[in-house]
């Protein structure tokens, strides 16, 4: 039951973040000339990368460093009482960090409530009457680029989540003697690569065609994923770490 509640909490967090990003992304793109909307969007998302770095360091110091990672062989040799105590220690290790996060999120939400954002008005007054949600969705579905963009975004988010969530386990399983706490350093490196890639990408798309920069990033990211899948060891781990630099725009 406790694990179920934990999953419900994670679902609520993800839903809230999804709604927040869905609302703010269009807002950022219209706060200026349409031609530079993609530049402002990537620049704003750079702070997301910076926050991810802080989150990894935060989790490493308050979660992974307090509870040693146990291999499956060690877990199999534990008595039911020892296994229960170990799992309980894992649960307790995330309590304090999440309470700190709750306090920070509430503070940020309060600041957002007190901030006066500029009112945006469409140049086309007919936009005020867009019809129902289903009508708007139907209108978007007729745009070929939009359909492909939704599919591409779905695949991108899945690939990014898989790479980030599996990196620590990949390091522990592929590198002899690697601990989860030390492997978190590679996850921090991943976020740093993501941060650098986002900054570099923001600069590149201001000078080259955005779709060409995106295509180049995607091809490099796929190549690095293939290396991590087939090479293994330190080479695979480094490739998996560097991959985030090219999943950043």
UniProtKB/TrEMBL annotation:
Membrane topology listed for this record: Multi-pass membrane protein
InterPro entries xrefs: Lfuc_symporter_FucP, MFS, MFS_trans_sf, MFS_TsgA-like
Pfam families linked to this entry: MFS_1
Broad class of where this protein is predominantly found: membrane
Protein's cellular compartments: Cell inner membrane
Secretion signal, residue range per the UniProt entry: none
Cellular component terms (Gene Ontology): plasma membrane
GO function terms (MF aspect): fucose:proton symporter activity
Regions crossing the membrane: 46-68, 89-114, 146-168, 180-205, 217-243
The protein, known as: H+ symporter permease
Organism (species): Shigella flexneri K-315
């Amino acid at each position: 039951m406790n694990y179920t509640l934990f999953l419900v909490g994670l679902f609520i967090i993800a839903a809230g973040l999804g709604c927040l990003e869905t609302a703010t992304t269009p807002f950022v793109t219209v706060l200026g000339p349409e031609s530079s909307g993609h530049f402002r969007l990537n620049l704003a998302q750079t702070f997301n990368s910076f926050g991810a770095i802080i989150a990894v360091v935060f989790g490493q110091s308050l979660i992974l460093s307090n509870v040693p990672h146990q291999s499956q062989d060690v877990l199999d040799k534990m008595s039911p009482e020892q296994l229960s105590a170990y799992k309980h220690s894992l649960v307790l290790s995330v309590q304090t960090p999440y309470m700190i996060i709750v306090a920070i999120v509430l503070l940020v939400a309060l600041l957002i409530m007190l901030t006066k954002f500029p009112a945006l008005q469409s140049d086309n007054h007919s936009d005020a009457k867009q019809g129902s949600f289903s009508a708007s969705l139907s209108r978007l579905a007729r745009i070929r680029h939009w359909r492909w963009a939704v599919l591409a975004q779905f695949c991108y988010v899945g690939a990014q989540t898989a790479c980030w969530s599996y990196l620590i386990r990949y390091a522990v399983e592929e590198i002899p003697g690697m601990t989860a706490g030390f492997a978190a350093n590679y996850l921090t490196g991943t976020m740093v690569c993501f941060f650098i890639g986002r900054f570099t990408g923001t600069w590149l798309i201001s000078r080259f065609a955005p779709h060409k920069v995106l295509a180049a990033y995607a091809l490099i990211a796929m190549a690095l994923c293939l290396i991590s899948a087939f090479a293994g060891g330190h080479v695979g781990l480094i490739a998996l770490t560097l991959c985030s630099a090219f999943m950043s725009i």
